[in-house]
Amino acid sequence: MPGIEVPKEKWSGKVREVTLGATAANGGTRSRTVTVGGETTLPFLTFEGTIPHPPAIAVEVRDSQPTDWPSLLIEAWNGATQTPGAWARAAEASGADLVALTFSPSDRLNAAYARQTLREVLAATGLPLVVFGTGQADLDNEILVAVAEEGKGENLLLGVCEEKNYRTIVAAALAHGHLVNARTAMDVNLAKQLNILIHDMGMPLERIIMDPTTGALGYGIEYGYSVMERLRLAALQGDSMTQQPMLVTPGEEAWRTKEARAAEGVPAAWGDYATRACNWEVLTASALIESGADIVILRHPQSVKRVRSVIQALMS
Amino acid sequence: MALTGLQIYKLLPASSTNAEVKAHANCKECGYPTCLAFAMKLAAKQAELSSCPYVEETAKAQLEESAAPPIRLITVAGTAKKLEVGNELVLFRHEKTFYHPAGLFVRVKDTQPDAADVAKAVNDYQVDYVGMTLGLDGIAVEAAGGDFAATVAAVKGVCGLPLILMTTDPAQAEAGLKAAAGSTPLLCCATADNWQAMAKLAAQYKVPLVVAGNGDLNQLADLAEQVKGAGVEDIVLDPGTRGYADSLAAFTQLRRLALKKNERKVGYPILAFAGEDVVLAGQHIAKYAGFVVLDRFDPAVAYSLIVLRANLFTDPQKPIQVLPGIYEINKPGPGDPLMITTNFSITYFSVANEVESSGLPGWLLVADAEGMSVLTAWAAGKFDAERIAKSVKTTGIMDKISHKRLIIPGHVAVLMGEIEEELPGWEINVGPREAVDLPNFLKTRWG
After folding, report:
1. Could you tell me the fold of the domain covering B325-445?
2. Do A283 and B278 touch (CB under 8 A)?
3. Which tens digit of pLDDT belongs to each residue from B355-404?
4. Which residue spans of chain B are classified as CATH 3.40.50.11600?
5. Sign of the Cα pseudo-torsion (B406, B412, B413, B418, in order)
6. pTM of the model
7. pLDDT tens, B294-330?
8. Residues of A in contact with B95 (CB under 8 A)
9. From CA B228, how far away is CA B239, in angstroms rounded?
10. Which CATH number does B74-312 carry?
11. Does the domain formed by B5-67 have CATH 3.30.70.20?
12. Spatial separation of the C-alpha atoms in residues A240 and B321, rounded to whole Å
């Protein structure tokens, strides 16, 4: 009986490699750098291509303790959420590859405060940083310009660049040698277009991460999942402007859902609250990693450990 | 793999070398002007081969073979419910859709005193997700040194879902099959050592049979061929992988072989084992398993997997819609804010989720916009002043609130004047464009 031949795709394209952070040798103060991307096949199909770098896990650290996070999540950090420095140290200890410092809108938020917060986090952790603004354009332009200047040399990943607000952030990143995160709303063409717009400003493609946005499990994850699969297929088929590594925020999305927030007043069929809440984040993140995510931003320390073990199993 | 029109044409009378058959070339009896036209319709699946009375037997066999699904549809049935898996046509859901959601089974052992209790709990488990009532699909009973037949009978007595009978001992398998009489369990499994006896049982009892490999797909394909040769058509494959990377590779290769290479030897659904690992079960659901066996029943795990499965098996062409009507968020009172949005599920969930997590009470009216998002529906004329006014007037919301203020999505601010005309006496407030800004809007602008 003739044997069967395992079908292998001959992909012509490759995901770009992007490096976050800089050690002293490159003008920064990070204890290590993190490189993502470089895949020459679909997620973890090493029988036909290479996955040179495992997906990286970032832990979201806020400039101040959030008031709208469920207590299950806050308590998991054992008091470290009180200050961004302590939180960043705890994030590193939890096994994260990156710290994602995210600013919350508040009255005290301004350029000086942002600089000081960045200094505190840089001093507390040796991990490369992602720094995200609040999502409010005017505020973000003010604080991210300050952050870019303050963090010169650190090769930060700055965001969030969106179609309606990217020029100032990109210009600041260009001026001070940082990377940018380009976020679009679950659409292949929009993602491509924003990469082009940012690249047209002179930003090298090796300094752009794309963020196609996702929904949480139960809240639209299938849209993000399929858009990421399509983007990765396009990248492997050689479409240059889709070859950026992908970042998504399953932590933020999952912990917004009722499943992760409501301990009481929900159907008994939802099961134990703590188990369900963490499953929500871990399953969302894992599904996205298997559809092409190169960086996932998580919130719960237990999720970091679980997603890490999934990544290790997939890379083995 | 489906044949092209030209390939089919070569099998029709016009292309025949048999003079008698050739005499019927382009006879039009099928209702099409030429054999070529008929072939094109057959390729497009718009005509039936039976319309041609003259097609030769050998050609017919080839055509029917090509029309068979690349992954065989397998049906298992309990005393109350059945499950169909297989018949998948794509590797990625965006290419078309995934058709048959993977069955989720919970494993019990015949040495486990509470096997029947677990089976009953699994049988009774139901959960509501966006208006659908969903549940688990069956019980895998494993022979582990206890009384297998008695356990199968006990499980069947309390659980109407399909069963998987797990034993490699043909004598035990037969006892289990007898105990499962009246249902169609999946027999698991045939191995290199026992396949003759297991195939015989599967054929005799008319049940699908799992063919278990050792991780080598060639060995698996050969074993499946032998089992098929012994008269078993309904086959399920267990490639023998148990981890993340090996399962992903093997299941992907099997799906590709079936779909892209039309490899009939492995054109069957896959049985996967996830142990107690919810994430591994999630991978199996996304990447190509037809049956997923979990080692423990835990509602917190079951619910998350059922939701993941519902999401990934949603037809991308037909997004999930929510029912139009009134949705109460955080127990609103008559004076609390009234908002309106469309019935596209993601739109609804974005809005409902933001308001809900803010803790603020509110009334959310969901208009029938044919499942489109706000901007798309507005552009298509499915979310206009008339439809918005109709929702307010026909849902009964006016009996539940004590005010006449309506918050509309910022994206349709342009409709404000028209809505005020349609709803005399109402104050129309233009809300934020994005749901994420709603809590702040409600805090600062409502009062």
Report:
1. Rossmann fold (3.40.50)
2. yes
3. 987 889 999 999 999 888 898 888 888 999 999 999 999 999 999 999 99
4. 325-445
5. negative
6. 0.87
7. 999 999 999 999 999 999 999 988 777 888 999 999 9
8. none
9. 16
10. 3.20.20.20
11. no
12. 35
